[in-house]
Design goal:
Layout lengths: L2 H35 L7 E5 L2 E4 H17 L4 E4 L11 E9 L1 H4 L7 E8 L2 E9 L4 E6 L3 E4 L2 E2 L12 E4 L10 H10 L3 E3 L4 H9 L5 E7 L1 H13 L3 E2 L7 H4 L1 E6 L1 H12 L5
Parallel strand pairs: 3-4, 10-11, 10-12
Antiparallel strand pairs: 1-2, 4-5, 5-6, 6-7, 7-8, 8-9, 12-14, 13-14
Helix pairs in contact: 1-2, 5-6
């Protein structure tokens, strides 16, 4: 076996270790969060900005996740929504959203998830999204495909916007009026828009063919890099984030099944900077 083959095998083994670790950790964290969700009336809630909430459960789940990562991969960096960044020395970073869809979570709406991704030098290698309320765990590893509870999935194959819904997102980091013409054009073309207040979960739904695509002018890395990998691995197309900046600055998100990607990109290009 030559040195290139040995190196590739080591990469695959490392990826497999991280994937299995991430699946188990996301599901453990999901069960911890679900206990808090079942008593959502008792949560302590703070506002971080327009429609941007955080609860004590978000912070407690992230602390748990960070502790497990530090024990298993002490040289890795960590980027999370609720805690300080850890630089690391390995070139690997874990990207954490302990509860994506907090606005739903704190009001008893069962549309939220735990999100974990592992990146190497800014490129996502492993992504896991656990939705405890449905009992579904979505995962992908680069070059290995996308799965839901162990079953392989693919993005939607339709070429018409009239045959499904497109997820849409908005944050206070973008101009409010920009999403309006995008939604209008989707409707004018016979499509429909979908929003459930969890961008990560909607990206998982694109990867599994439930939504045709997803668009948002800006998403933070912890909300999107796991789902974007899933969509690529499920045969879809994405607007590629910049590995040098995505962890610190986030990215524009356009993602869809291959047959409708160009049309969705054309709609967004009229408003977003692509």
């Amino acid at each position: 076996m030559n040195s290139h083959s040995l190196s590739r095998n080591n990469e695959l083994n490392d990826q497999s270790d991280r994937l299995h670790f991430a699946i188990a950790l996301a599901e453990q964290a999901g069960q911890q969060a679900r206990k808090a969700f079942l008593s959502f009336e008792t949560l302590a809630i703070e506002s971080k900005g327009h429609q941007d909430l955080v609860s004590n459960a978000d912070r407690e789940v992230e602390i748990f996740i960070r502790g497990e990562i530090a024990r298993a991969f002490p040289d890795d960096g960590i980027v999370g929504e609720e805690g300080s960044d850890v630089a690391g020395t390995s070139g690997h970073h874990w990207v954490i959203d302990p509860i994506d869809g907090t606005a739903n979570f704190v009001r008893g709406i069962p549309a939220w998830c735990v999100v974990l991704a592992s990146t190497f030098q800014g490129r996502t290698e492993v992504g896991v999204i656990c939705e405890p309320s449905s009992g579904e765990t979505f995962w992908a590893a680069r070059g290995q495909g996308t799965f839901v509870n162990g079953k392989p999935v693919r993005t939607a194959s339709t070429s018409s916007l009239t045959e499904g819904s497109i997820g849409t997102g908005f944050s206070n980091r973008a101009e409010a009026q920009n999403i309006i013409p995008v939604i209008t054009e989707i409707l004018n073309r016979g499509g429909i828009f979908f929003r459930n207040a969890s961008g990560a979960l909607m990206l998982a739904y694109v990867a599994s063919g439930r939504l045709l695509g997803y668009v948002e002018e800006h998403m933070n890395a912890w909300d999107c890099v796991a789902g974007l990998l899933m969509i690529e691995e499920a045969g879809g197309r994405i607007h590629q984030p910049d590995p040098a900046t995505v962890l610190a600055e986030g990215t524009l998100v356009l993602a869809a099944g291959d047959a409708v990607y160009d049309e969705i990109e054309a709609i967004c290009a009229r408003v977003f900077t692509i």
